[in-house]
Amino acid sequence: xxxxxxxxxxxxxxxxxxxxxxxxxxxxxxxxxxxxxxxxxxxxxxxxxxxxxxxxxxxxxxxxxxxxxxxxxxxxxxxxxxxxxxxxxxxxxxxxxxxxxxxxxxxxxxxxxxxxxxxxxxxxxxxxxxxxxxxxxxxxxxxxxxxxxxx
Length: 151
Known about the structure:
- The chain is an alpha+beta fold.
- It is 44% helix and 22% strand.
- It has five helices and six strands; from the N terminus they run E-E-E-E-E-H-H-E-H-H-H.
- The strands form two sheets. A three-stranded antiparallel sheet has the order 1-2-3, with no helix packed on it. A three-stranded mixed sheet has the order 5-4-6.
- The model has no long low-confidence stretch (mean pLDDT 87).
């Protein structure tokens, strides 16, 4: 790890802590040449891809997952920290499966299941974008799934 101050290539780790929610390890380092300290974050390099609806492949991006869930959860009972925790859980589950790819449809269903269990509004918002409702009756069917009074 190069020092960001003097670019010397050797440093020692003075402290390490696991950040479970973000699936990272925070390390405090000290440069062995200039003795300045800096922080690094280590995370697992996810090596699986998402097969999009049009057949293209895209590298899995946890930040994209968080952004999509954040938009659905805005102004609901789900906090940004909960979104990050759900994202970390989904990511860990996918890594545990040890598949090299996942369909975007399957990934969307996994996200919707998590949102369904937490907040109905977040679920419906995500479903509206994910399922691409074209007609109001499709939305009504999704609402009836929750036994919510429809419009």
